[in-house]
Design brief:
16 helices, about 450 residues, mainly alpha, globular, Growth Hormone, Chain: A
Length: about 450
């Protein structure tokens, strides 16, 4: 019998108490991340107006994905995944608390957030030590995030059934977006009105709560069918995960495509704070509100993503998502209205969550548990490692473009270049990413699991 999207079994209604704890932990950490999305670049903009230096703040957070994602997968497939997630949240609490204390000590020598908004106030005479502090904190937080997020995705299939993964991932993504982009950024704008350090203290508290919740999860969370133990053979164990990923054509296509799309989107995100300040003329509060657009669209997608996938077919939905995200970059790059950009962010949020719900659930469904951590990390090496490249390119593009087309169009350039290059991504993806191929992969994984169980 031919498989059709609508043939997938009905999902249970309740996801269970373990999922609720994981959901709450993810929500509060993403609230803290939402504070940092605004607070860290705003702090950096009080130290320098150099777009390359601003982009390096984002790069310091993202480069750990390029450096450590593959070793993180090896660790994830060897240890209790619950303990690893909770330990990384505890480490992020310690780093963020120390950073908040350090910002408290230096903020008296900086222009206030209000002066940054107004374009008044003097920049520090010696910005290098202050920027180094931000880079160091961002790098440490990003390194802990690599292990935490890779492991959390690997942990989820041990908390909910596989036929509930799209629903569970959808609810998780929705909550994360509400916290990180709907509540966090506007709250950061308000807290910055008090002092630069306040959002970072709140962020530290969020990490502490998450660590306690994940530590309290009940159950067994070591990899099922574990094939690695004893002394770590880094090369062979990383190689096993990469080979599984590379010899699974569907996941290989998704990983390559994700890397390309992420590089293009982060070219623009790297200088978004300057684009918002200088082209859209937004203050910190309105910049925070701008970012809520993605949350609104993402939350809506989280509620219906699994049903849209079944109704229209996963492949068709993924291709349309790529088309929409390319068009969105073009519209932003030509816009001067914060309202228009907010609406575009809402559409991007919807498409991004729809994409993530389908692709993450697919990866969790068709990958054997004992290698899932390494496959996740290999996938993210392509997808998130490219973010580092995109971030660096974005800052360099604006810096060089300013001498040719002027400051305003240089800030628009990453959006417009990203939109144009989406065409190449579509040419590569369309023949390879079809609903039939996705359903075939799901069916093969289900049959393989049935043979093992029998």
């Amino acid at each position: 019998m031919t498989a059709h999207p609508g043939d997938r079994p009905a999902r249970a209604t309740h996801l269970g108490p373990g999922y609720r704890k994981l959901w709450i932990a993810s929500t509060v950490t993403n609230l803290g991340d939402g504070l940092s999305i605004v607070a860290i670049p705003w702090l950096a903009s009080a130290i320098t107006r150099d777009p390359l230096q601003i982009a390096l703040v984002s790069l310091a957070t993202r480069v750990p994905w390029l450096l450590f994602s593959l070793p993180a997968g090896v660790i994830t497939d060897r240890v209790d995944r619950r303990k690893l997630v909770a330990t990384m949240d505890a480490l992020r609490f310690a780093v963020m608390l120390a950073f908040a204390v350090a910002v408290t000590a230096v903020q008296g020598g900086l222009a206030t957030p209000q002066q940054v908004e107004a374009g008044t106030g003097d920049l520090p005479t010696h910005p290098a030590p202050l920027l180094a502090l931000i880079y160091a904190a961002a790098f440490l937080l990003g390194t802990a995030e690599v292990l935490r997020d890779n492991t959390a995705q690997t942990l989820l299939p041990s908390v909910v059934a596989k036929d509930q993964l799209e629903k569970a991932n959808g609810r998780m993504w929705g909550a994360e977006l509400v916290a990180s982009q709907f509540v966090g950024p506007p709250l950061a704008g308000a807290l910055l009105g008090l002092a630069f350090a306040v959002p970072f203290f709140v962020n530290a508290g969020a990490f502490a709560i998450a660590a306690a919740l994940v530590f309290s999860l009940a159950g067994q969370f070591t990899p099922r069918g574990q094939t690695t133990s004893g002394r770590i053979a880094w090369r062979s164990e990383i190689g096993e995960g990469l080979r599984w990923l590379w010899h699974t054509p569907l996941l290989r296509t998704l990983a390559i495509m994700l890397g390309a799309a992420n590089a293009l989107s982060t070219m623009a995100e790297a200088v978004l704070v300057l684009f918002a300040q200088e082209v859209l003329t937004l203050d910190a509060g309105r910049f925070g509100l701008l970012l809520t657009g993605a949350a609104v669209g993402g939350v809506l997608a989280s509620l219906v993503a699994d049903r849209i996938s079944i109704r229209f077919g996963s492949g068709r939905v993924l291709v349309l998502s790529l088309v929409g995200m390319g068009l969105a970059q073009a519209v932003i790059g030509l816009s001067t209205s914060g309202v228009v950009v907010w609406a575009v962010f809402a559409s991007v949020g919807f498409l991004a969550v729809q994409w993530n719900v389908i692709t993450v659930s697919l990866r969790q469904t068709i990958t054997p548990d004992h290698v899932l951590g390494r496959v996740n990390s290999g996938y993210r090496f392509f997808g998130w490692g490219a973010i580092s490249l995109g971030t660096a390119l974005g800052g360099a593009m604006v810096t060089l473009g300013e001498t040719v087309v002027g400051r305003e169009w240089a800030l628009r350039l990453p959006f417009l270049v990203g939109a144009a290059l989406h065409i190449a991504i579509l040419i590569y993806v369309v023949p390879r990413l079809t609903t039939a191929r996705i359903e075939q992969a799901r069916a093969q994984a289900s049959n393989a699991a049935g043979n093992v169980d029998s």
